[in-house]
Amino acid sequence: MAPTSHVKRALILCQIVFWNLNRKDLTNHVCDLAEATNADVIILNECTTPIQETLNALTSRVDKDFYVPTRSSDDRFHCFCRDKTLNLTEAHKGFRSSYRKLHLGSTRILLGLFHGVDIRNNKSSIRQSHVERLATEMRFVESQQGHNHIMMMGDFNMNPYEDGMNHATGMNAMMTRDCATSGHRTFYGDKYDFYYNPMWSLFGDDSGGPAGTFYNTSNQGSYGWCMVDQVIIHHSIINHFQEVRIMTHAGSNCLTNARGRPNSIGASDHLPIIVKLKGVCCD
Question: Most CB within 10 Å of its CB: which of 6, 7, 91, 177?
Fold first, then answer.
């Protein structure tokens, strides 16, 4: 009888922080957040600080291994990584989007980054059209890259309950894992893959944290609290998702004001989110 082959499997954990900085120099906060969360990947949106300055601060104050993966030409997303085995090179650049190769052990994931048109100046139909365009782009990238293991992350400038996020032709993102694991739904004869949107569970007073990531009482944000910063996960890789949290502190720096809303004066009008993924590496 041939000897049994024993394959050693090691659990891999990856923590990704996303933060819209609202065009402010929050380098000190970013470093404190990176250190406090032990983040493997930092993604900054609306960051006006030169990317090299932020990198210098991260390598000198947090971890010398931080580096900048390949960059998009418009620098909409400033990406920093401290584990080169994760890869993070750009596979595709779209309109207000970027798709990065994320090697999570033996699993290959596409980390899609997205910045939707702003909620204050664009009515819901405009934002929905923009997200539907993103959905079409995602299907193109799936075909181009040869797999559908996509996780989208960013400032969607939409709430999870808005049409663009949950309609079949949009993000098709479901409230629960169970809803998403059925795989797809059919709309006018075409199949659309389900995504899981865990941000639903972080809404409201009883969520154990902030009621959202952004507070807006303009004519486009009548609910007050909004969950515009989101992560959605393709049904095929839900098992790699561990958790998502909204951060209220960057180290000792409080990111909220006395009412618990984003401190837009001392920090950003958005709160950062951190996503934890798990994978397996075979030796």
Answer: 91
CA distances from 104 to 15, 85, 151, 214 (A): 11, 8, 12, 30
- Give me the pLDDT at residue 129, please: 86
CA distance 158 to 116: 8
Decide yes or no: CATH 3.60.10.10 for domain 12-282.
yes
Say if residues 214 and 229 touch (Cβ distance below 8 Å): yes
CA separation for the pair 149, 143 (Å, rounded): 11
State both tokens at 216. Answer: 């807006």
Backbone angles phi, psi at 136, to 5 degrees: -65, -40
SS3 state at 14:
strand
Of 20, 12, 11, residue with least CA distance to 45: 20
The answer to whether the CB of 85 falls within 8 A of the CB of 40 is: no
Torsion angle of C-alpha atoms 234, 67, 256, 272, degrees rounded to 10: -10
Give me the pLDDT at residue 219, please: 64
- Tell me the pTM: 0.93
How is residue 89 written in tokens? 């090179």
| CA gap 232, 174 in Å, rounded | 9
Instruction: Tell me the mean pLDDT in the region 73-98.
Output: 91
Separation CA 221–CA 106 (nearest Å): 42
Q: Please state, in angstroms and rounded to a whole number, the distance separating the CA atoms of residues 173 and 176.
A: 9
Judge whether 88 and 69 are in contact, CB under 8 Å: yes
Helices (H) and strands (E) in the chain, counts: 5, 18
Q: Is 125 helix (H, G, I), strand (E, B) or coil?
A: helix
Residue 211 DSSP one-character state: S
